[in-house]
């Protein structure tokens, strides 16, 4: 089970606001493209978002469903990944002084991902989580102590839209 912690130098409310915006999922989740709410009101239980996964020139449509939500602190998701199966992804937010301790926990539930799960896959998930939590922090305004703000995912998306227009 891949569990990773990350201290984000932003209030838990700021981090939750980002998680609760289904349109911004692709900004912080590594490997996803454009996302949008599919059913229900994200992040209420059983609501879902649709998004694309890009593998080189190929694009695959996937869906993520909220299985448990404690507003402001816990979001548990089931990721439907086609032939790869499904995975459980949980993210917990804990106040840590004036900051937010984020705990990410992911493991395969069923399908090929569950059958093929091993130490090597676990290591890859850990690397993905490291990158994902760093992206989440940047989207929340935490530049990792570098003294400058990076372009947020939303700003980058706005630039892409302007370029494509």
Largest sheet: 7 strands, antiparallel
Order of helices and strands: EHHEEEEEEHHH
The class by helix and strand makeup works out as: alpha+beta
Give the amount of beta strand, in percent. 35-45%
Summary keywords:
165 residues; alpha+beta; seven-stranded antiparallel beta sheet; 7 strands
Verbal overview:
- Strands 1-7-6-5-4-3-2 form a seven-stranded antiparallel sheet.
- Residues 147-165 have low confidence and may be disordered.
- The longest helix is centred in the last third of the chain and has 21 residues, at 119-139.
- The protein has five helices and seven strands; from the N terminus they run E-H-H-E-E-E-E-E-E-H-H-H.
- It has 165 residues and is α+β, with helices and mostly antiparallel strands.
- It is globular.
- The chain has helices at residues 12-19, 25-28, 112-115, 119-139, 153-164; strands at residues 2-8, 32-39, 48-55, 58-70, 74-80, 86-96, 99-110.
Summarize the structure.
The protein has 5 helices and 7 strands, in the order βααββββββααα.
Tell me the layout of helices and strands:
Blueprint: E1 2-8, H1 12-19, H2 25-28, E2 32-39, E3 48-55, E4 58-70, E5 74-80, E6 86-96, E7 99-110, H3 112-115, H4 119-139, H5 153-164
Antiparallel strand pairs: 1-7, 2-3, 3-4, 4-5, 5-6, 6-7
């Amino acid at each position: 089970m891949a569990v990773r912690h990350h201290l984000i130098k932003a209030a838990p409310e700021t981090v939750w606001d980002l998680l609760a915006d289904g349109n911004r999922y692709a900004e912080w989740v590594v490997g996803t493209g454009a996302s949008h709410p599919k059913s229900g009101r994200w992040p209420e239980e059983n609501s879902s978002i649709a998004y694309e996964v890009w593998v080189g020139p190929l694009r695959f449509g996937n869906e993520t469903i909220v299985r448990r939500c404690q507003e402001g602190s816990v979001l548990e998701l089931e990721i439907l990944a086609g032939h790869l199966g499904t995975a459980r992804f949980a993210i917990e937010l804990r106040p840590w002084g004036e900051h937010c301790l984020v705990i990410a926990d992911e493991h395969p539930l069923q399908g090929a991902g569950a059958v093929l799960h091993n130490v090597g896959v676990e290591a890859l998930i850990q690397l993905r989580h490291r990158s994902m939590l760093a992206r989440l922090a940047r989207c929340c305004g935490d530049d990792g102590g570098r003294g400058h703000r990076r372009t947020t995912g939303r700003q980058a998306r706005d630039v892409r839209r302007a370029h494509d227009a």
